[in-house]
Amino acid sequence: MDRIIKKIAVLGSGTMGTQIACHFANIGAEVLLLDRVPPEFTEEDKNNGLKEDSTSFRSKFAINNLKKAVKTQPSPLFTSDFASRIKPGNFEDDLDKIAACDWVLEAIIEKPEPKRKLYEEVEKYRKNGTLITSNTSGIAISKLSEGRSEDFQKHFCGTHFFNPPRYLQLLEIIPGTKTSEDVIQFLQSFAEIHLGKTAITCKDTPAFIGNRIGVYAIMLTIQLMQKMNLSIEQVDELTGKAVGRPKTATFRTADLVGLDVLADVSHGLYENLKNDEERAVFKLPDFMRKMLENGWIGDKVNQGFYKKEKEGGDTKLYTLDPAKMEYRPKENPSYLIVEEQKKQESLEDQFKSMEAGKVEETNFLKKIYLKVTGSDNDKAVMFFKEFYYRLFAYCSNRVPEITEEIYKIDEAIKAGFGWEAGPFEIWDSLGLEETTKKMNMAGYKPAGWVAEMIQKGHSSFYSHHNGRKNYYHLQTEEKLPVPLARRLIILENFREDNTIWQNAGCNVIDVGDGVLVVEFTSRMNTINMEVMEGINKAIDLAENDPRFKAVVIGNDTDDFSLGADLGMIGKNAVVRNKSTIEDALHEFQDLMLRIRYSYIPVIAAPKGKTLGGGCELCLYTDRVQAAAETYMGLVEIGVGLIPAGGGTTEMVRRASAEMVDEAPDSPHLQSYLMNISTAKVSTSAEEAFQVKYLRRGVDRVSMNKKRVLTDAKHLALELAENYRPPVKTKSINALGKNALSFYLSGIANMHTGNYMTDYDREIVEKLAYTMCGGSLSGKNTVEEEYMMRLERESFLELVTNMKTIERMGSMLLKGKPKRN
Questions:
Q1: Do domains 210-473 and 492-728 have the same CATH topology?
Q2: How far apart are CA 234 and CA 246, in angstroms?
Q3: Residue 123 backbone dihedrals phi, psi, to 5 degrees
């Protein structure tokens, strides 16, 4: 457990190996990326300026694959600069360098013999005690290390990263028969804290846990599609956001992963699971075999279940008709039951709504609706029931075959396939006993241990108590703490017993040790009047109740906040109700100042999208504890506005603190102006430091998004020990009209170069006017309140402009800004 990982060797520079190497670089490790020497020197190599005996030729595979990865979107690197931490090489010239490595990870072709042959060479140079792991999605780990030394086998295991490694959280750790328990414990801890993974130990069974269940779910979905005569679009509508899964649902996900990869795993399962009761599900249907023969394997060739074609300046989407093996224009099916689900406040209620199949409708409306959309609501409910009843039964029958702990199945599916809830959690949400009865009646009988569990008085697989999540353990027949959650603050585990105040927009939750968490519950975690009331309430409690001493603002959802309540702003803008908007702005700005100057520390814990007002809130907290995957930005320009919740003021204040001269073209202010005017959103927390939404040496980063609230609590307690509120800012440097003239000239040039529309120019000029201090004739020092007043005035001048209203309407109705 005292290991330090500084240098890592990745053997194999294919897509997976190179992306794993990139993620190791993200955490600051020095990475050696090795691959084969090319089999022959070609004319193309010569034309590319390579020499046959040169390092650039002999390491060509690793060099070129790394270059390709750096250009990949979304990027496997937090910032392209991190590529310098990776040194490409080859097996013949550089394998001896693994002697200096702390971890050697093999990621070559998925065949046992080449792996074993490489391990023979590795053992010549690897120093004793070095971790050695194989990235495999299904090869039996116990067979790979046969014949190796005792030290090699003690430190050897499987580490199955899911693709892409930066973004998918699951890491399966598969011990060999002789793997040291210390090695497994270290890898779990290192993966969770430093790699940001949900690390799960697995039995050495075919496809382990994630792919065994996840691929079953995909192949079962395809089987039901054919059985019920559903289209690919209809299935994706029923297996996406409507049931707490990624918007890519089933078939867009399959295209992203690649049909070739899916087929390989499915075929392997079919061949190796002779006694599996659902073995037939893994057999590829004829239309998928034809897709493979045609090379229609997904996004890698721009053609799979969906197909993209350029027509003029537009990209048209087409969908495969499996019966005809032809593509047709993509349809947009809609189901009444899915619309009904959108009204539900929780994922649990969404599942209950789908199973019940009840919707508010008249017969006339239903007839018209079905005629227009071609969507059969009853068939959707039938699909839901058969899919989940069979999935529940299948998962129950995999215990204890693939794991003794049910939580591992749920966590693997959530972390590896992006589901919001795992199979046993969904089963709980529908009601364990009642759903089990329905499954038996439908002929999908779960494993015998489920009935025994119910008979012994257990009404659910999971329970939540005093901040802990407990799961039913098959061997002890009692509820035990989920190890993955035991060390972390997960609000679901605190919400029922520890919520001390709530309203329609947020909960204030006591997470122990005197720390309060403000959890947003508004739609998309937008900041509305209820949210502002909740934050003020939490600060009141922490300042005045001796039980509390700090506040953390954060949540357990994928995104921190998508900004201020645009619906409220747009509604009042349309009717020219400026006074209501101005009052809301005042309240938001006052809240930002209260957060900054309160008598207790306030910490923001953002992850995912942290936009507009959500970003502004973070700018005013004492510290930010951000997830590595935090996408932060002041994006108000996109809806025809400027940041007016203190965001513009704070950017000027930060620029002011950096100024060392009085030049009107101050590069400090200019960079902040550019960030706002281009609606710059960081692609990671690391980039948020680069664009100065986060402060180096002040704000911190958690690699694992599940650890953000826990780390934020520790940071809050650290600050609370000797906390003193900051001194109020009284001297912000405003550069005045000379600087404004300089910026207006640059804005005009961008407009002339067609980088801005006419209205973009108008908005950015208003932003520059505000950031330069308004009508000040020259450089002067001003207070925060002065800058905030300018923010409000500029915002209010823009908000009722018809072009801004059009932009807000486009964002609210279509989810994307309008360039007018």
A1: no
A2: 15
A3: -70, -15
CB 59, CB 88: distance < 8 Å:
yes
DSSP letter at 309 equals: E
Answer CATH for 210-473 from 1.50.10.10, 1.10.10.10, 3.30.1240.10, 1.10.1040.50: 1.10.1040.50
CATH topology of domain 492-728: 2-enoyl-CoA Hydratase; Chain A, domain 1 (3.90.226)
For tokens 């039980």, the residue is 547
Give, in order, the Cα–Cα distances in Å from 359 to each of 218, 335, 341, 808.
27, 10, 9, 31
> Residue 681: phi, psi to the nearest 5?
-115, 125
In this prediction, residues 384-397 reach a mean pLDDT of 97
Residue 516 DSSP label: E
DSSP state of 638: G
Model pLDDT, residue 363: 53
Contacts of 203 (CB under 8 A, 6+ apart): 174, 401, 402, 403
The predicted-structure confidence for 329-341, as pLDDT tens digits, reads as follows 999 888 888 877 7
Widest pairwise Cα distance in the chain: 83
Give 375's pLDDT tier (boundaries 50, 70, 90).
low
In the chain, where the domains are located:
7-201, 210-473, 492-728
Residue 771 near residue 765 (C-beta atoms within 8 A): no
β-pairing, 326-329 with 550-554?
unpaired
Q: What is the CATH number of domain 7-201?
A: 3.40.50.720
pTM > 0.85: yes
* 646 in Cβ contact with 592 (< 8 Å): yes
What is the Cα–Cα distance from 454 to 447, expressed in whole angstroms? Answer: 12
Q: How far apart are CA 158 and CA 29, in angstroms?
A: 20
Distance CA 137, CA 118 (A): 18
Give alpha helix (H) positions in 757-801: 758-771, 784-799
Backbone angles phi, psi at 479, to 5 degrees: -85, 125
Nearest to 710, CA basis, from 515, 533, 544: 515
- Token code pair at residue 775: 């009508």
Which stretches does DSSP call E strand in 529-683? Answer: 550-554, 602-605, 608-611, 623-627, 630-633
